[in-house]
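Quick one, probably user error.
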């Protein structure tokens, strides 16, 4: 933990912090001096992330939290108030990925779960974070959306809809709560080299690069979780103090053509 970091003194919750992009954001925030609450439906993953932060000299707590449950969201925010003394940054990063299939064949339950976690989960966490942030003088909310909130992908209508919805949820928070000195922005990744991405290609990272990273991105590769974390640090920090209701598109040119 850096006492002079860009997030020194800030208190942050990262949802979906147990793996992938969320874990990288938690580690980067801690490296910049923030104290963290790592929330995830996967308690083991959240605990591992908190341990990694601690091993690097930072401060992190872990919390088992299904963001789609109002009671769990309230409990997580109450823990931040109690254990961290308040909240400056919320990262709504948790996501549910349904099996890919055309909308005309999609199980109704998969549509509902996608909306419950990806969109309503971000609402619930924000709903209970905003009063806490407002009492502390403001804050920054970051919603991890996707390039697929901007353009559709085959077999992913539910996911794309949930991410497009996040873009507007974020704008709604921005206009409602600028008066409370709360900023709200989205961060939209392109294809990122995570375990989940590799699993789509049979666990073969090289195949994921060859079949998705190289052809689909102007920059000719998938992104790295650290590149997403760098964007999140910017949005969390006072460096982005004149940015709200906006999207930070970190997609390697995926949507550029
Ligand atoms: N990896 C990519 O290529 C990519 C691209 C665009 C956007 N994204 C977005 O980035 C974010 C992180 O994705 P990732 O690739 O790191 O995936 P990931 O599967 O590694 O991480 C998602 C995390 O969310 C947690 N989670 C799932 N449901 C939850 C719930 N109900 N409550 C709390 N936690 C829950 C999981 O346990 C997991 O730890 C997601 O919002 C995803 O949509 C990823």
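Nope, works fine. Designed sequence:
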């Amino acid at each position: 933990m850096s006492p002079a970091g860009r997030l020194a003194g800030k208190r942050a919750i990262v949802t979906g912090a147990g793996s992938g992009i969320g874990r990288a954001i938690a580690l980067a925030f801690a490296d910049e001096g923030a104290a963290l609450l790592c929330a995830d439906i996967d308690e083991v993953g959240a605990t591992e992330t908190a341990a990694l932060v601690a091993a690097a000299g930072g401060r992190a707590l872990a919390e088992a939290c299904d963001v789609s449950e109002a009671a769990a969201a309230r409990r997580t925010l109450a823990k931040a108030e109690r254990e961290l003394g308040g909240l400056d940054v919320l990262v709504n990063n948790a996501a549910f990925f349904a099996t890919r299939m055309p909308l005309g064949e999609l199980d109704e339950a998969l549509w509902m779960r996608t909306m419950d976690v990806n969109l309503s989960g971000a609402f619930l966490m924000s709903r209970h974070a905003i009063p806490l942030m407002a009492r502390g003088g403001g804050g920054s909310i970051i919603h991890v959306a996707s390039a697929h909130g901007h353009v559709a992908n085959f077999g992913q209508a539910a996911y794309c809809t949930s991410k497009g919805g996040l873009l507007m949820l974020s704008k709604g928070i921005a206009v409602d709560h600028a008066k409370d000195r709360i900023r709200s922005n989205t961060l939209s990744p392109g294809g990122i080299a995570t375990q989940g991405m590799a699993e789509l290609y049979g666990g073969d990272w090289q195949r994921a690069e060859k079949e998705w990273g190289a052809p689909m991105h102007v920059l000719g590769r998938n992104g790295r979780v650290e590149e997403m974390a760098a964007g999140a640090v910017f949005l969390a920090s006072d460096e982005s103090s004149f940015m709200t209701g906006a999207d930070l598109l970190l997609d390697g040119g995926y949507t550029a053509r």
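Residues 170 and 184 are 5 Å apart (CA to CA).
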